[in-house]
């Protein structure tokens, strides 16, 4: 078996091999989800072939930007299209491709890799850990009334945004530039968010609203007329209005868009997809029980390729020191680091000091963005805390002001 890089000439065989791995057939441009492979970067993909040249596996990656805590934007590899044809599974092909890919990403100078896991049990052994989470919220329209706000300061803040702003309904085909601009501003201030390169929008490579599928877009504009949020939606079976995604500059804009779709005529219920865990929308409803949460699941998985670079890249809100003993079984690496944080900046160096925490690199990926607390993984028996107070200290250091969230599909 050989694992080699691909070029543009390999596009068709790459797509066909990947679909064979999943028992599917490639669709055409008429697919409602768009032609996802239009965004593939063929100079970043891998193809596994047998000695006689038969393709048996694929693995790709996109060149994204990832927003870290502290509004810091860094390059990140978005792993995608990973598959092995059924006749060659459980023969080491997948592990060989993943090991080859990680080495290639390091050679490119990248220190963070991310993916969306089709199966949660596959990617932890390669060093990935779930780092952001998402859910769906369904609200019957007749129970969609908003509660009066009880805090005077909060009422002033939230009501001002909705009172001075406005919502305009456009068709997806008429507002691609607005969507791209609003999303780009949003993702730069949202920890865990990924960039959507311009070619994704122009080629419709992805799911709505990136894809050219028919959608209505509720565009929110601030008092100056500048777009600062949108909700992409469509009407489906049973008079259910489904919101693909809601992008908002702040909670006030989100609430204004939510109120707009919940007030839509001829709707029985509204399904909000990709809602961050702990989002205040349910609390805004007069009937808290009206919001039914479903599909509470992981979304973005994170893998650190260079631990010191990754830890010094993100922002921090609390000073302190922590010794981390990090095991990377897949790459055969084991290192211990002293993490020192002062005034929002971190220094991370090798050390022989006794560890505060011992953890797998996949667990470090899970806590990296602040979406998973170290103490949760200590209680689960995955991270070892070597003294009383170590978990609480780690919680305080890795805590973020804003919950990380990613809604980009790739």
Strand content: 25-35%
CATH topology of the largest domain: Aminopeptidase
Shape: globular
Radius of gyration based on Cα positions: 23 Å
Helix amount, in percent? 25-40%
Question: Could you give the order of the helices and strands?
Answer: EHEEEHEEEHEHHEEEHEHEEHEEEEHHEH
Count of all domains: 3
| Straight-line distance between termini | 28 Å
Subunit structure: Homohexamer; trimer of dimers.
Domain N-acetyltransferase: 1-153
Keywords: Acyltransferase, Transferase
Binding site for acetyl-CoA: 82-84, 90-95, 118-119
What descriptors fit this protein?
Aminopeptidase, 7-stranded mixed β-sheet, 410 residues, Nonspecific Lipid-transfer Protein, Chain A, alpha+beta, 19 strands, 11 helices, 3 domains
Characterization of the model:
It is a single chain. Helix 3 (152-164) crosses helix 6. This protein has helices spanning 11-21, 93-107, 152-164, 176-189, 198-203, 251-262, 281-284, 307-313, 361-368, 374-379, 390-398; strands at residues 2-5, 46-49, 55-68, 72-84, 112-116, 129-130, 133-140, 166-171, 216-221, 227-235, 240-248, 269-276, 292-298, 300-304, 320-328, 333-342, 345-350, 357-360, 384-385. Strands 1-2-3-4-5-14-6 form a 7-stranded mixed beta sheet. It has a 7-stranded mixed beta sheet with strand order 8-9-10-11-12-7-13, sandwiched between helices. Strands 17-16-15-18-19 form a 5-stranded mixed beta sheet. The protein folds into 3 domains: 2-110, 3-Layer(aba) Sandwich (Aminopeptidase); 134-295, Aminopeptidase (3-Layer(aba) Sandwich), CATH 3.40.630.30; 307-398, SCP2 sterol-binding domain (Nonspecific Lipid-transfer Protein, Chain A). It is 26% helix and 32% strand. It is of the alpha+beta class and 410 residues long. The chain contains 11 helices and 19 strands. The mean pLDDT is 95. The longest helix is centred in the first third of the chain and has 15 residues, at 93-107. Residues 1-153 form the N-acetyltransferase domain. Acetyl-CoA binds at residues 82-84, 90-95, 118-119. InterPro entries: Acetyltransf_17 (IPR041380), Acetyltransferase_Eis (IPR051554), Acyl_CoA_acyltransferase (IPR016181), Eis_dom (IPR025559), GNAT_dom (IPR000182), NAcTrfase_Eis (IPR022902), SCP2_sterol-bd_dom_sf (IPR036527).
């Amino acid at each position: 078996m050989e694992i080699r890089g691909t070029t543009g000439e390999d596009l068709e065989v790459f797509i066909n091999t990947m679909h064979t791995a999943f028992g599917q057939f490639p669709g055409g441009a008429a697919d409602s989800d768009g032609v996802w492979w239009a965004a593939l970067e063929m100079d970043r993909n891998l193809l596994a072939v047998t000695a006689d040249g038969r393709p048996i596996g694929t693995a790709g990656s996109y060149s994204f930007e990832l927003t870290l805590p502290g509004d810091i934007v860094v390059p990140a590899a978005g792993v995608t299209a990973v598959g092995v044809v059924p006749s060659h599974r459980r023969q080491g092909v997948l592990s060989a491709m993943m090991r080859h890919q990680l080495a290639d990403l390091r050679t490119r100078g990248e220190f963070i890799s991310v993916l969306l896991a089709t199966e949660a049990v596959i990617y932890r052994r390669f060093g990935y850990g779930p780092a952001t989470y998402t859910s769906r919220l369904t609200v019957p329209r007749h129970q969609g009334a908003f509660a009066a706000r009880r805090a005077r300061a909060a009422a002033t803040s939230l009501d001002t945004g909705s009172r001075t702003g406005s919502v305009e309904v456009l068709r997806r085909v008429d507002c691609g530039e607005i969507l791209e601009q609003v999303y780009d501003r949003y993702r730069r201030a949202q920890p865990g968010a990924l960039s959507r390169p311009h070619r994704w929008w122009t080629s419709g490579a992805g799911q709505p609203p990136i894809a050219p599928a028919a959608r209505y877009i509720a565009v929110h504009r601030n008092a100056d007329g500048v777009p600062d949020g949108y909700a992409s939606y469509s009407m489906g079976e049973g008079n259910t209005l489904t919101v693909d995604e809601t992008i908002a500059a702040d909670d006030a804009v989100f609430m204004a868009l939510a109120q707009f779709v919940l007030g839509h005529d001829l709707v029985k219920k509204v399904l909000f997809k990709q809602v961050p865990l702990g989002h205040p929308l349910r609390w805004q409803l007069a009937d808290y029980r009206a919001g039914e949460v479903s599909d509470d699941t992981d979304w973005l998985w994170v893998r650190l390729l260079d631990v010191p670079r990754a830890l010094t890249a993100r922002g921090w809100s609390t000073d302190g020191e922590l010794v981390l003993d990090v095991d990377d079984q897949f790459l055969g690496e084991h290192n211990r680091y002293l993490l020192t944080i002062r005034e929002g900046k971190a220094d991370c160096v090798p050390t022989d000091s006794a560890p505060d925490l011992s953890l797998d690199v996949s667990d470090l990926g899970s806590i990296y963005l602040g979406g998973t607390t170290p103490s949760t993984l200590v209680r689960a028996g995955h991270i070892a805390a070597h003294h009383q107070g170590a978990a609480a200290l780690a919680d305080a250091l890795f805590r973020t002001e804003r919950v990380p969230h990613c809604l980009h599909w790739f």
